[in-house]
Specification:
Radius of gyration: 24 Å
Strand content: 15-25%
CATH architecture: 4-Layer Sandwich
CATH class: Alpha Beta
Oligomer: single chain
Helix content: 25-40%
Length: 523
């Protein structure tokens, strides 16, 4: 099987920026001088993820001209986490123009000499940024664990947190990235490697995009959304390469670039575009005071099909040898306005807004399949199965008494819509239901995280019961049980746990308020 590098490099060399521009101009004109995306796909029988994405009508992803953003290079805010976030990846990324067969396709071939003649900065940077611990009310991220604390060692299960986020905000643009380590609970001692994978993915993508978007002397000017999407795809290759270099495991990755559109003389309000690339089940959303919450990454999962929350759907990292699983890699874009909040979440946030996970709706009877059937159905995708299968197995269950329940039955598409409505209700009305509405990135992050913590609190209380870890002797002293006995007792509680709302996981959210930094935006 060809490696990711070979597939992407081969495709990129055939689709230069000029060729892409020509192909777009010839759409609908019957021109045959340039090869269509479909003919390119036929040449890549191995199923390169980029050709698979382009196998359709290119007009489905329209090309938009961008406004001037590359002159505003000064970073106003940069934030990463949890703890030290992406800065814990110690290996400094190689430069975009380094002569290396692994990444030499990233730059246009005619720009190699151009970079060699430019001067380099002397200030030390990590992923292109000098200070990653400069959060802002309007550019903010937060992460925590929803897992229970083990009373025998006073640490949370699932440590370290296998999520990572990063955000860089400039005066009229922002880059957001979020990764969620996959599969850490399946094999002992993999939690650290899943965390490394997430941090490496955010580090690698941020490193590339900060240079590609804001160093035109290195990678040329970005004038259209097409250029941005090419940069996003290349940043995913950089992320995957760094994961392999750091010997990490698997991770989802979602990256979003918020950039200005040209000023329209007919309107006073500036417009922006949010361009996203994602693989896995970490999702991107927009909250608008006018229209509510909408999902940007909706195309990465079938909202009309009940999905198994134990399957991340895709991941970077060594899924098959050194190759990733890019089954649901998706590009998407949406127009946003001043005051809109663009935010990314791990599934620890988004799944806890699901009406079935929240136990205020149930699945149709035809979706109630035994665990063994689900396992057999997804056997071929076991490597991207979610962590903590023990907890997730029961996140959607507890519906055995559905015939006696008065809860409404929801189909897959209704689950998706209700999830968005529940988010919108929280952001508009707050926890009390009486407001005030969310008005900053920090406020949004805190609201979403607080909701996930509250809805899973009862689950944690049950799993933190000392009776699951200790037994009393005749003298009344507590004696710690063996690991096997602790596990046996925990398993016996799962039926009880399954009846309680919420899903235990790592929970992360990062957000940016459009055109709010260095502006007169009224809170």
């Amino acid at each position: 099987m060809p490696s990711l590098r070979k597939k992407v490099a081969g495709f990129m060399r055939q689709l230069s920026i000029s060729n892409l521009a020509g192909a777009v101009e010839n759409i609908g004109q019957g021109e045959q001088t340039l090869r269509s995306p479909r003919s390119l796909t036929q040449d890549f029988t191995s199923g390169c993820f980029i050709t698979r994405y382009l196998d359709g009508n290119p007009e489905e992803l329209p090309i938009r001209q961008l406004g001037n953003f590359q002159e505003n290079k000064d970073v106003v805010s940069a934030h990463t986490g949890p703890d030290n976030g992406l800065t814990t990846v110690n290996v400094q990324q190689r430069h975009l123009s380094i002569n290396d067969i692994d990444i030499d396709y990233i730059d246009m071939l005619d720009q190699g000499e151009q970079y060699r003649n430019t001067s380099t900065t002397t200030a030390p940077t990590i992923a292109g940024i000098t200070d990653w611990f400069n959060p802002h009310e309007m550019a903010y991220g937060i992460a925590t664990t929803l897992y229970e604390k083990n009373p025998t060692n006073n640490t949370n299960n699932g440590e370290p947190i296998a999520d990572c986020f990063g955000i860089v905000a400039r005066s009229n643009s922002a880059i957001l990235a979020l990764a969620d380590g996959v599969n850490w609970g399946m094999i002992k001692d993999n939690s650290t490697k899943a965390s490394i994978a997430a941090r490496s993915a955010v580090h690698g993508s941020m490193e590339y995009l900060n240079k590609a978007l804001f160093c035109p002397s290195i990678n040329g000017e970005m004038t259209t959304t097409k250029d941005v999407f090419i940069a996003l795809l290349r940043s995913f290759h950089a992320a995957h390469s760094l994961i392999l270099q750091e010997q990490g495991m698997l991770t989802t990755l979602t990256v979003c670039a918020v950039l200005p559109l040209p000023n329209d003389s007919n309107t006073e309000q500036n417009k922006y575009i949010a361009c996203t690339c994602n693989v896995g089940d970490s999702l991107a959303y927009v909250y608008s005071r006018k229209t509510g919450v909408r999902e940007i990454t909706r195309g990465s999962h079938d909202i009309h099909c009940m999905r198994d929350m134990r399957d991340a759907l895709g991941a970077l990292g060594p899924v098959d040898g050194s190759n990733p699983e890019l089954n649901n890699l998706t590009l998407a874009m949406t127009e946003v306005e001043k005051g809109d909040i663009v935010f990314l979440t791990s599934d620890g946030i988004s799944d806890n807004f699901d009406p079935v996970v929240g136990k205020f709706a149930i699945l149709p009877c035809h979706n109630s399949v035994p665990d063994s059937n689900v396992k057999n159905h997804t056997e071929g995708r076991s490597k991207t199965r979610r962590k903590s299968a023990e907890n997730l197995r029961h996140a959607e269950s507890g519906n055995s008494n559905r015939n006696k329940s008065n809860l409404p039955v929801v189909e897959a598409y209704q689950r998706h819509e209700l999830t968005l409505l529940r988010m919108e209700d929280l952001l508009r009305r707050g926890v009390s239901g009486e407001g005030p509405p969310c008005n900053s990135a920090k406020h949004l992050c805190e609201l979403l995280l607080d909701f996930a913590v509250r809805i899973t609190a009862a689950k944690r209380r049950i799993l933190e019961d000392t009776d699951l870890y200790y037994a009393q002797n005749k003298d009344g002293q507590l004696i710690q049980l063996s690991k096997q006995e602790q596990r046996t007792r925990r398993i016996k509680t799962l039926d009880k746990v399954s009846m309680i709302p919420g899903k235990l996981d790592h929970a992360t959210v990062v957000a940016y308020v459009v055109e709010s930094i260095n502006s007169e935006y009224d809170l």
